[in-house]
Amino acid sequence: MNAESNRYLLIGEFDSFLIGLFSRRGEVIWVSSLEEALNQTGAFTAIMLEKNKFSQEISKELSTHYPQTPIIVSNGDRPNEPPPAVRFVPFYKLLSEEIEREEKLARIELRVEELRRVHSDAKRMLILLHDNPDPDSIASALALRTLLKRNKQTAIIGHLGEKVSRPENVAMIELLEIDLEKLVPKDLKEFDSIALVDVQPTFFGNLLPEVDTVIDHHPPSGSYKARFCEIKSQEGATSTILTCYLRAAQVEISERLATALLYGIKTDTISLNRDANPDDIEAFTFLYPLANLALLRRIERAEMPPKELKSFAQALANYWIQNNILFVNLGKVEREYLIPKMADFSIQVKGIEWSVAFGIVSNTHLVISVRNVGYVKSAGRIVRDLFKDIGSAGGHRSAAKAIVPITRLKKVIGSTSQASIKKWITEIFSRALVEKTDSDN
Ligand SMILES: [Mn+2]
């Protein structure tokens, strides 16, 4: 937000340096009473209320008068039943960058109130997902249900597609005890309101010209009517949007919900590598300590079906070694975790210093996992040097990973055939690792 457009309404006794601080961020209107505050014209970025001025009544009057304006109470203790969109911020935070975060959260909280109003009259609502429910959509639905203070009787999570079959998604549904209903189009009439998460109405053709809510991170698609619409295509996952909502509304996030949301962000951003922005990272960092990581590992390492075991074994049988680097090409894989698993396995081979396992995930990305024995060059630095300009890459000393979109790969090596990928990977790693070793000595 730029300083010229910021306007702050400060009510009460504030220290002059606090006033000074706010003047640097925008225009400050400083008043001492509620009457004066209600006499102002124009809109405000935020209202700062000194703690002695706060009461439920005053905040109610202010939010009626300035309906779209966050209210921040300085140094106030949070009452047991705080009014919506009022935040209680310790004094020191008013002096720091955190005040901008608090303002942002307060603005989001106003959006949450709007969203809650849209569904407040519905006895039984539907949270509808796309036809192939994935972790991001399922987690977002759970989060929306929690945000709207509903349960599985009053908010049904459903989809119109086939039965979920992808092993991790099945594991997620089972281990987190998620009730997902398979519906047919005529069922849609049975609900008092409909919210779409991680998808937009146009996905369903002409079936849903009008819905109550749309929350999605895909680019805006076509035209439709929605009473509440939040499309944030800059976010890597819908789970990020909902995590932000839950935080802003200060809703307690259970371990189960945190695990689901963390997994949703992780899968949609390929572990924060694809299309992840600072909001995704912030949501991820916030959820991480709340989630059950043991459970998450069980979901991610959902049983390996025999078909996968076979392709794993076949890929391994065709390994090749060059300059003490063991390479394995997994070809097209459905589940990304097979690639790091293969790299981990291959580094155990005697005499090998590096292992490089790679494969194409969801037909869209080449994923490369690199391991080393630890006393050589940093794996993280090697992959960053090799891939930072054409994809995302990172890691630490002995383990690293790179992701290259197939479209970029095609531009770089001129083809996306298995043979050319294999040749390219072998060449660039051999060159980089031999060169690096030489320049070390
Ligand atoms: Mn998504």
3D structure, described in words:
There is one protein chain. This protein has 441 residues and is α/β, with parallel strands linked by helices. The protein has 3 domains: 3-90, Response regulator (Rossmann fold); 119-300, inorganic pyrophosphatase (n-terminal core) (Alpha-Beta Complex), CATH 3.90.1640; 306-440, Diaminopimelate Epimerase, Chain A, domain 1, CATH 3.10.310. It is built from 16 helices and 17 strands. Helix 6 links the parallel strand 6 and strand 7. The chain starts with 6 loop residues before the first strand and ends with a helix. Bound molecules: manganese (II) ion.
Quickly describe the structure.
By secondary structure, the chain is an alpha/beta fold. It is built from 16 helices and 17 strands. It folds into three domains: 88 residues, 3-Layer(aba) Sandwich (Rossmann fold), CATH 3.40.50.2300; 182 residues, inorganic pyrophosphatase (n-terminal core), CATH 3.90.1640; 135 residues, Diaminopimelate Epimerase, Chain A, domain 1, CATH 3.10.310.30.
